[in-house]
Amino acid sequence: MPRHAPPASAVALGLGLALALAACEPDRIDVDRPTGADGQRRSVQAAVNELRAAGHDGPAFHAFHQRLLALRPIMDEAAGEDAELFAVTEALAAVERRLAPGGNAQALALEVWPLALAPPLKAPVPGVPDPDVWSPWLPRAGEGAPAYLERLCGGLLALECKHVVPEGQAEVVAAVAIERLTSRARRAVINCPACVEASWRRVVAGWEAMNAVRVTTIAAARRTYDPARWPVAGAAAVPPPPAAPGLRHVHLGPEERVERLRYVLADARRDGVARIALAAREPTYPYRMRAYVLDSGLARLPARDGEPVQLLLRVLDVRAPIATTGATTGDGDGEVRRASRGRRR
Question: Which of 9, 123, 159, 198 could form a disulfide with 75 if both were Cys (CB 3.0 to 4.6 A apart)?
Answer without folding.
Answer: 123
